[in-house]
Write a structure and sequence with these properties.
Layout lengths: L4 E5 L3 H12 L4 E5 L5 H16 L5 E4 L10 E4 L15 H16 L6 E4 L4 H12 L6 E3 L2 H16 L6 E2 L2 E3 L5 E3 L5 E2 L2 E2 L6 H12 L1 H9 L6 H15 L4 E10 L5 E12 L2 E5 L6 H18 L4 H4 L2
Parallel strand pairs: 1-2, 1-4, 2-3, 4-5, 5-6
Antiparallel strand pairs: 7-10, 8-9, 10-11, 12-13, 13-14
Helix pairs in contact: 1-2, 1-8, 3-4, 4-9, 5-6, 5-8
The protein binds 1,4,5,6-tetrahydronicotinamide adenine dinucleotide (TXD).
The site of 1,4,5,6-tetrahydronicotinamide adenine dinucleotide has 33 residues, from helix 1 and helix 3.
Amino acid sequence: MKKPKITVIGGGNVGATTAHRLAEGQLGDVVLIDVVEGMPQGKALDLLQAAPVVHHDGLVVGSNDYEAAAGSDIIVVTAGLARKPGMSRDDLQDANARIVADCIRRSIKGSRDTIIVMVTNPLDVMCEVARRVSGFPRERVVGMAGILDTARMRAFIAQELGVSAESVFALVLGGHGDSMVPLPRYTTVSGVPITELLPRERIDAIVQRTAQGGGEIVRLLKTGSAYYAPAAGVWEMVDSIVKDRKKILPCSAHLEGEFGLDDVFVGVPCKLGAAGMEGIFEPKLTADEIALLHRSAAEVRAQVGKLPNELGTQ
Ligand code: TXD
């Protein structure tokens, strides 16, 4: 059987760490693409030379040329500018929309059936850019953010309760970051809702820290933003697609009527399998939760409305 081919566009912190995880996780052959001359080639060579020691046998190729990406089963887009301290996600939108549009146009030429996993911020808006530029059905354009937000929340809850993070399940909907919609009712420790395990004010504090989780790391790092946990999030999505695991993961998906929302990307529980985003799970929400989700979607929609003209129409 043919080994999956996974292209990661953008060989910066998130892209290179993702390539690292994908290669060592034996998920397939990995192609790393960046505009910086020599950088993706150098990082790919370095990753390849780890193979004999850490026992993986996939190819890792670096290139500045999209020909290397031809025939990709999955294309992960991390290219763009990273958030600097004091800079909001939205400041990045214009520049990153142009970068993402260019990367998608070039990369899908040789990979018409590929599944696009978006990572570049502002995430939900960049998913819409990828959908418009590619013309792909919604199954094949999906964004990584919810896994990161829930992973952060799970890690904080685990720390607070002194239990393994693996026993903590969390559900977060909505836009990435500040406008996320956490659902403590559906957040459990081995099936027990955290609302029964933690006082309200502790849950609120954890939720707030999660929503600002990216900013906390940006302030500490001073240059650049988080990349280990984001790369882990991409790995989990690619793993579920490549192995057709059909995991239910919080991802940014194009809604077509779900939760009373239409034609907008927002974070929802998605089934990821060989066909990509194979379906959306719709947990029962309270009126308040629905209102928060709609507000989050309205923010994404407003941002989509600010896209440069050439990307403004389908
Ligand atoms: O949850 C999430 N979705 C996110 C998203 C979590 C973490 C980071 N998130 C966003 O991913 C972040 O706000 C950025 O928009 C991207 C990439 O973050 P990263 O930390 O990897 O940024 P770097 O290290 O600056 O890397 C970006 C790379 C860099 O090497 C550039 O040379 C390259 O992108 N780049 C390009 N590659 C190919 N083609 C073009 N046009 C291009 N422009 C820049």
